[in-house]
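Customer escalation, tier 2.

The customer says the design service returned an amino acid string that "doesn't look like it belongs to this structure." They asked us to rerun it and document both sides in this ticket. The original structure tokens are below, unchanged.
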């Protein structure tokens, strides 16, 4: 029995370390201000990291890297957006949801390496994967949130 235990522990450790290496990685999260006029203020945070308040001018991008925490930990980032008299906050990256395939316009995407958000007058749109600038308009987007009612 002792020999079996001595054999099983290294095998479990080997598979655990390899799975953890395969599952660890970085997702590039980008937020684009597509509102034609006006500045959008963005403040993003995770449970242990505050990325501070950023001023996002029209047609400008703000982005950051999301580092996967490990095999048994989740990764969650939420952002608060302010535009004119409107504001909203929501999860922009939740590993438990984002690591799955999502359907956008009848196509399925795996959101793991690159994740985009676009701020528009009618709300917030998302897409997975990299969208080249020369083909940006043809990329598939999914409408996820509308702006909340005015503050006050």
């Amino acid at each position: 029995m002792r020999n079996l235990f001595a054999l099983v522990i290294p095998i479990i450790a080997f598979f655990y370390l390899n799975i953890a290496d395969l599952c660890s990685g970085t997702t590039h999260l980008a937020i684009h201000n597509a509102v034609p006029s006006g500045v959008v203020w963005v403040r993003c945070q995770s449970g242990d990291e505050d990325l501070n308040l950023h001023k996002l001018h029209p047609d400008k991008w703000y982005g950051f890297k999301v580092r996967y925490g490990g095999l048994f930990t989740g990764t969650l980032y939420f952002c608060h957006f302010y535009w004119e008299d409107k504001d909203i906050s929501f999860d922009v990256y939740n590993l438990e949801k984002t690591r799955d395939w999502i359907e956008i316009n009848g196509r399925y995407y795996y959101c793991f390496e690159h994740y985009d958000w676009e701020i528009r007058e009618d709300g917030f749109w998302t897409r997975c994967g990299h969208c080249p600038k020369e083909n940006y308009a043809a990329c598939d987007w999914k409408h996820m949130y509308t702006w909340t009612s005015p503050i006050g």
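Tier 2 assessment: The sequence is consistent with the input. The helical segments are 2-23, 95-98. Residues 2-23 form the longest helix (22 residues). Sent an explanation to the customer and offered a walkthrough call.
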